[in-house]
Amino acid sequence: MVVRIDLAIKPTPVQFLRKVSAEYGFDLYIKRDDLTELLGSGNKIRKLEYLMGDALKQGATTIFTSGGLQSNHARATAYVSRKLGLKPVLFLRKGEKVLNGNLLLDMLFGAEIVEVSSEEYENIDEIFLEYKKEKEKRGEKVYIIPEGGSNALGALGYFNMVMELKDQIDVESFEAIVCAVGSGGTIAGISAALSFLGYRVPVIGVNVTTKNADYFVEKVKKIVRDMGKLGVEAKEPRFEIVDSFRGPAYAVPSDEDVNVIKEIATKEAIVLDPVYTSKAFRGTLEMFRSSGKRILFVHTGGIFGVFAQSGRLV
Ligand SMILES: *Cc1c(COP(=O)(O)O)cnc(C)c1O
Questions:
Q1: In terms of pTM, does the model score above 0.85?
Q2: Is 117 one of the catalytic residues?
Q3: 265-283: average pLDDT
Q4: For residue 164, how many other CB atoms are within 10 A of its CB?
Q5: pLDDT tens-digit readout, 201-244
Q6: For a pocket test of ligand 1, which of 300, 303, 306, 309 has the largest count of ligand atoms closer than 8 A to its C-beta?
Q7: Which residue has its alpha carbon closest to ligand 1 atom 3?
Q8: N6-(pyridoxal phosphate)lysine-modified residues are where (predicted)?
Q9: Shared-domain flag, residues 112 and 159
Q10: Quick one: angle between helices 277-288 and 255-268, nearest 10?
Q11: Domain count, the chain
Q12: What is the mean predicted confidence (pLDDT) over 134-149?
């Protein structure tokens, strides 16, 4: 049986972006999942409601997960672990080490941080198992959460988000729903839920990683199939992955992305992040400019990323 624990502050608001809509010639609404929590803000906490429910059910004492040094998912996992009395161990890909943003919070939560090289990260599952054995020798019970919390269980968090959304606004009135794609769980959950409800609204995922669209199409389909085993029967989900707004590299914003962050903060008093949502938002503006369409953008959070990249932003 699937167990969900209440962690996020729900429902998050849906707002109309008046100025941006008037200026860009389409109706843009935003689902404020940057407001799911304070320290647990963003999309990962919705996935953790299910993943941590499972961890507790299995009697875990220690939580493993992985990500980049400034991973939002790692920070949310460290936070939620401490909230539930569990010990977080974060396996973070080595990179420029800025003691601010998510990493600073990881440290305040006393997370055990294991820095791994990019090559080691390719085989993170082996490293997990090695460390798991060590922890088990010391009597810990380890629960492993995959990168981004993106498996079928985690994706249920975004299935749940759509159930929340349909009570807030007429979902079928939108011509598309747009979100950023980093590990695929968010778009999998959203598209599975839309298909489950029989809605024909397509989901557009703006890929911000170095992997390509084909990889994510397969991964998302697999997650949706696996959700079937958890009792959520979704037929062929309607989604598309767009590769054209990735910028210079993962977690590196282009000048245009930086300008979008400043523009939206100034016009709408909403802060986008430099890794995911600025790229997805810029993609939304470019794809739908002057279209007259009605679009919903899912703000997946990432606020602490602006502190880690402050020098780049101003
Ligand atoms: C992780 C993350 C995403 C991507 O979500 P996935 O489910 O991993 O595809 C988007 N935005 C923010 C701010 C994130 O932290």
A1: yes
A2: no
A3: 98
A4: 16
A5: 999 999 999 999 999 999 999 999 999 999 998 888 999 999 99
A6: 300
A7: 182
A8: 44
A9: no
A10: 80
A11: 2
A12: 98
CATH assignment of the domain containing 127: 3.40.50.1100
Interval between CA 247 and ligand 1 midpoint (Å): 16
Q: Tell me the one-letter amino acid at 133.
A: K
Place of tokens 């100025």: 19
| Count of residues making up the chain | 314
Distance 128 CA to ligand 1 centre (A): 22
How far is C-alpha 264 from the geometric centre of its chain's CA atoms? Answer: 20
Q: Distance between CA 177 and CA 79 in Å, rounded?
A: 29
Nearest-5° angle of CA 137, CA 141, CA 146?
A: 115
For the stretch 45-86, pLDDT in tens is 999 999 999 999 999 999 999 999 999 999 999 999 999 999
Interatomic CA distance for residues 143 and 299, integer angstroms: 28
* Strand ranges for 69-128 from DSSP E: 87-93, 112-116
| Residues of the chain above pLDDT 90, percent | 98
Cis before 253? omega within 30: no
Among 149, 168, 186, residue at a domain's last position: 149
Same domain, 91 and 106: yes
d(CA 209, CA 84): 31
Last residue of a domain, one of 119, 149, 179: 149
- Rounded CA separation 237/214 (Å): 15
* Percent helix, percent strand, percent coil in the chain, to nearest 5: 45, 15, 35
Pocket test for ligand 1, best of 37, 43, 70 (most atoms within 8 A of CB): 43
Q: What are phi and psi of 105, to 5 degrees?
A: -65, -40
